[in-house]
Amino acid sequence: MTSAVLSPRLLRSERPSLLAGLLVALASVAAVTGLIYPLKQVTPVLSLGVLYVPAVLLVSMFWGLRLGVAASVLSAAAFNFFHLPPGGRFTLADERDWVALLAFVVVAVATGLLAELARARGREAQQRRQEADLAAEMAHLLLGTADLDEALDVAAERLAAAVGAPSATISLGQLDPADGSVMFTLSSAGGPVGTLRLAGTLATHERVRIVERLVPSLESILAAALHRAELQAEVVETAALRRSDELKTAVLRSVSHDLRTPLTAILMAAAALDPQRPTSENVGEVREQVIDAATRLWRLIEKLLDLSVLQAGRAAPRLVWYSVDEVLQEALEQVGAASAVFKLSVEPGMPLLQGDPGQLERAFANVLENAARYSCDKPVSVRARAVGGRIRVLIVDQGPGIARSEQERIFLPFYRTPDAPAQHSGPGLGLAITRGFLELNGAKISVESHPGQGTSFVVEFPLQAPEPSPIAAGVGEEAAS
């Protein structure tokens, strides 16, 4: 029980104050000297000198070798002056008294050395623990973040606090030497990975400790952080390439069918035409088939071009003042009245908006075409009116509706709803192009739908004219010149 209580104190790296040690030494020697008076009545006085040994041990263990030797000399002097004959003088009448004094000194020296060794080992263990904690903290900082530069600043602050330097800098490159600072080159695998600069001056033993213990840990952690950053960059690049490959695969899978269908129709129509004895009826039929197939092919190619321009960021709108009524009329003409029955209703006196009418016509044409495809030959309602500082265009069909889980995905390129009938299937480009063109012109599109109850597309324009982007302004200036 006693050793369990004393051992942490014995291994403390800091000694108690010197004044406390002097007081303890004086008090211990005085207490033992007083204790010997009653004991020497029953025991030979020479054998009682051993009572001073615990006091010498106590002082040596807690206050070191020098104070322990001083306590042993003081014990010998007190024992000699008060208890050894002739008494009252600092003289030794018997040679055996010198043996007692020598025993005190040997005990003090041995105990002091052992205490110093334990204290040194305690300091070493504490330093090792602090260095391990610092290495773990730097590893957490440098390996657990995507911003390595910011993490290096925080790690430098922690390192400066650990070594007692005013400030520190960790750089991935070479740092210029500064007055009143110490530089350490960080290397890994035979090559430099960075530089550590500590402000202020360092003692030789501190410099040696940093070089032997801290720098190797920092080199390993920094090299691992750089390797991790390289791996992350490779992962990002690989993911981007994989997404690009997936997009290309989706494009080929989607476009191959949509391109093959009109081309097959054109080839079959041409093959059905009798070059020897063509009739007006046969030529007219072939002409209708070719025009219809070529129109579908042209629309698909136009959508692919629109999508490529949007994804490349080269679809800057040409800002002019336009009427929503005229844009909707042009979009209906592009779709064609034969594909569905559209009911257009525009509130009179609608204010003009600023944007690119050509892009908006294609955007609305795609929404109308989608509504016509799924309307099951039922009327499609198109209404435009001003609502609360906005112009809202509502396109409502009476088709099968869209599940809630699919309502955001329908605006992704080449995405088709899983339950879409084969005869209604398209390339999956129209709504993605619609959102892209609308957002370029300051508008937003959303969908409201329930399965079996039709679908409503809501397009909203702010009445305040959108600020032209620098690219759009440059395009407008070139057109004006």
Fold and architecture overview:
With 481 residues, the chain is an alpha+beta fold. The chain folds into three domains: 2-123, no CATH class; 146-236, no CATH class; 320-418 and 426-480, 2-Layer Sandwich (Heat Shock Protein 90). Helix content is 58%, strand content 13%. The protein is built from eleven helices and ten strands. It has helices at residues 2-10, 18-39, 52-82, 95-143, 148-163, 204-272, 280-311, 324-335, 357-374, 430-440, 470-480; strands at 168-171, 181-188, 191-199, 320-322, 342-346, 353-355, 380-387, 390-397, 444-449, 455-462. The strands form three sheets. Strands 5-7-8-10-9 form a five-stranded mixed β-sheet, covered by helices on one side. The protein has a three-stranded antiparallel β-sheet with strand order 1-3-2. Strand 2 (181-188) and strand 3 form a beta hairpin. Helix 4 runs parallel beside helix 6 (204-272) and helix 8 (324-335) packs across helix 9 (357-374). The model is unreliable at 1-11 and 465-481 (pLDDT under 50).
Which labels suit this protein?
58% helix, alpha+beta, Heat Shock Protein 90, 11 helices, 3 domains, 481 residues, 10 strands, disordered N terminus, single chain, disordered C terminus, five-stranded mixed sheet, three-stranded antiparallel sheet
Domain module count: 3
CATH topology of the largest domain, by name, is Heat Shock Protein 90
Low-confidence stretches: 1-11, 465-481
Mean pLDDT: 78
Number of helices: 11
Proportion of residues in extended strands: 5-15%
Helix content: 55-70%
The major pleated sheet works out as:
5 strands, mixed
Cα shape: rod-shaped
- Give me the CATH superfamily of the largest domain: Histidine kinase-like ATPase, C-terminal domain
CATH class division of the largest domain: Alpha Beta
Q: Radius of gyration in whole Å, from Cα?
A: 46 Å
Q: Termini, distance in Å?
A: 97 Å
Tell me which CATH architecture of the largest domain applies here.
2-Layer Sandwich
**DSSP strand count:** 10
